[in-house]
Specification:
By secondary structure, the chain is of the alpha+beta class. The chain has a single domain (52-175), classed as Sandwich (Immunoglobulin-like), CATH 2.60.40. Helix content is 32%, strand content 32%. It contains one helix and nine strands; from the N terminus they run αβββββββββ.
Length: 177
């Protein structure tokens, strides 16, 4: 006995709806899990930066603290970057703050230099090199300490260093009190 075409379509439709509902449920569970992981990642970033925000507030409370906004250079990499730098000469430490800092290529690093009036203009102090892991948009805080005494800072510069042979550092951001 052969099946009629309507029997075959009834059998297919009987299995199609449960299969469709199961597929929708699986997608919904996957979206919920991924959103939960995202929220956990954001919470972990916020918790790790709470101590840095407290350190920044402490630096700002120092009587000699200077707080200067970053000025962008004409380099297109720095086009959307903004933030500031806090420095205390008494404590010989500071904190950089950035938003929209671009992700770097594997052979690149950011490099903070401080120019001191007590030293030669051709002898800036190398302070910190950093390559932050920017996995999601967030404000980035980078603490630093001076490697040698800085008496009168007059310029802070962020350079983009490239380890490729023959590559020259590019100025990206600067701050002047």
């Amino acid at each position: 006995m052969s099946s009629s075409p309507t029997d075959i379509s009834d059998t297919q439709s009987r299995w199609l709806w449960p299969l469709l509902l199961i597929s929708i449920a699986i997608v919904m569970v996957a979206v919920m899990i991924s959103s939960q992981l995202f929220v956990q990642k954001v919470d972990s970033i916020e918790k790790s930066q709470v101590a840095q925000y407290e350190a920044r507030k402490f630096l700002l409370a120092q009587p000699d603290a200077i707080n200067i906004n970053w000025m962008r250079t004409l380099d297109p990499i720095a086009k959307k970057v903004y933030g500031d730098i806090v420095w205390s000469t008494l404590m010989q430490e500071g904190m950089m703050r950035f938003a929209n800092l671009p992700r770097l290529q594997a052979d690149q690093t950011y490099h903070l230099w401080i120019h001191d009036l007590a030293s030669s203009a051709s002898d800036p102090v190398s302070i910190a090199e950093f390559s932050p892991e920017l996995t999601m948009p967030t404000e980035l805080l980078v603490p630093f300490r001076a490697s040698r005494k800085i008496s009168e800072p007059y310029k802070f510069t962020i350079m983009l260093d490239n380890s490729a042979e023959g590559a020259q550092p590019q100025p990206l951001l600067l701050a002047q009190p």
